[in-house]
Amino acid sequence: MTSVAQWPALDRSSGDLEGQVYRLMRDRILRGQMPAGQRVPSTRVMAVSFGVARSTVVNAYDRLKAEGYLHSTSGAATRVAAFPTTPLSGQAAPPPPNLPRVTEFKRGGLFEPGLPDVSTFPHAAWARCLGARGRSLRVHDLGYSDHGGIRELREAILEHVSATRGVVARPEQIVIVPSTGAAIGLLASVLLQPDHPGDIVWMEDPGYASAQAILRMAGASLVPVPCNAEGIDIAQGTGPSPRLIYVTPSHQYPTGVTMSLQRRLALLEFARANGAIVLEDDYDSEFQYASRPIAALQGIDHGEVVAYIGTFSKTLAPGLRVAYAVIPSRLLAATEAAQRLRGAVVPVHMQAALADFMREGRFRAHLRHMNGIYAERMAATVEALRRHCGDWLDVGEGAGGLQVASWFRDAGIDDQAAVQRINAEGFALRAMSSLYLGPSRSGLLFGIARMLPEAAGAAAARLASAIPSIKNGDD
């Protein structure tokens, strides 16, 4: 067992002692310095050695267990988990050439997926930041120089995603765009060649329909790669090697599963070996109800094969039209050139106001507030659906995010026909089969963000009254 005394001292001036303990152990495990099966120091020994509270170490160990680095059983010591130990270092595979280059569903009804609750938006604080910046923009902010985003916002975003998502980057690698779709389109224009129709993109299946549509418009040939309880199984990919692999590893859309550590490492190794770029869409992973958010795939990528995308549409409001991408260094010049050509920029006063909003701590405070609200709504929705519709639907756990997947227990039900009938009664559900590229599974996708806990039971009861007639073929 490695002596704790041999480990680097914690940097107390930078704070986040829990995160430092977590990262020290995670990185040693990934480098093979702590092999599978090795017993790790007890939380008490580690706390005394580092001079921190035992709870700090306990929380760090819990994160490592949740992400698959450690395992323990009742009455036994905690040990390093067994998983592939391919070193996450060294030279990346040659990058692809850097050449520039939806399904509709009803809106406005009950359980509509994909939308946050904007009624709780912190209007006063935002208006103050926006008004102040609108009156006092500096001259050099008003030119063409910062196509990728103003420095202040890049730094504020990096500070946030480093602390909460484990992202490792420089401010220069962050590019500000109006939406997740704009980020996907921008990266597609860099990675997919106009004179090579049929560039291969591997997509987790089921997956985000808008991403599928955007990549098709960029000329990609989409290859579905199945997801299960551990996320995308890259070993199931078939055909020519892809140039791009699209995933939502921390909170898979739409199933809600978290990609296992083994699958994460396999995906990174595959991308490096095949010269592919992994597009990590971290659309609503800020909201976790059963545990703290899982660290981003980008944070353990030492080969610069991951482009990370985040958005403020789910955490603040879609109408702000602000998202961002963390670009691998080797693709940054081509991405910035493509962005200048495409004009996918966010107004400078919005960027400056958001930078102030984040630096003042308003954004994190809003996230904490909304995480509590959404946790209540998710729990109420899952309970109501299981109580009223459990005979027909297998409802997901709802451990995070703004939607929960469910599956018809009778696999023969046509979920798209069912959704058409149900939505005519004031709902806005989505058929799970519409999110598949390959063989599909019948089910319903529910949004929880605007479902008040006290209204969930009545809404689920209304839904339950419609399902038997669908099941019996009366539609």
Automatic annotation (TrEMBL):
Residues 15-83 form the HTH gntR-type domain. GO terms for molecular function: DNA binding; DNA-binding transcription factor activity; pyridoxal phosphate binding; transaminase activity. Keywords: Aminotransferase, DNA-binding, Pyridoxal phosphate, Transcription, Transcription regulation, Transferase. It comes from the Bacteria. InterPro entries: Aminotransferase_I/II_large, HTH_trans_reg/aminotransferase, PyrdxlP-dep_Trfase, PyrdxlP-dep_Trfase_major, Tscrpt_reg_HTH_GntR, WH-like_DNA-bd_sf, WH_DNA-bd_sf. In the C-terminal section; belongs to the class-I pyridoxal-phosphate-dependent aminotransferase family. This is GntR family transcriptional regulator/MocR family aminotransferase.
